[in-house]
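During data preparation, a discrete fold description was generated, and the record follows.
___
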Amino acid sequence: MNIKMTQVHSINTGFFRLDGGAMFGVVPRVLWQNKHTPDDRNRILLATRVLLIIDRNRKMIVETGIGNWHDKKFIDRYGLQNPDFDFK
């Protein structure tokens, strides 16, 4: 019997930054800052990822990225890295 398993691949499409205090809520900064070092604006680095799911004869993309249409102010505010990424 030949059973083909579903494969799930995580693809990193870039990075962005959000306020560490907002992300960790009531957790004190001293508990998270050593693992997620904030920048001078108190933002921590987060990844944008898409999922590639391969199931028998199907390939599916679950896209949860930020997009590539933002202006320079947005890119600076959120510290976008790789803001021009596009699946082409």
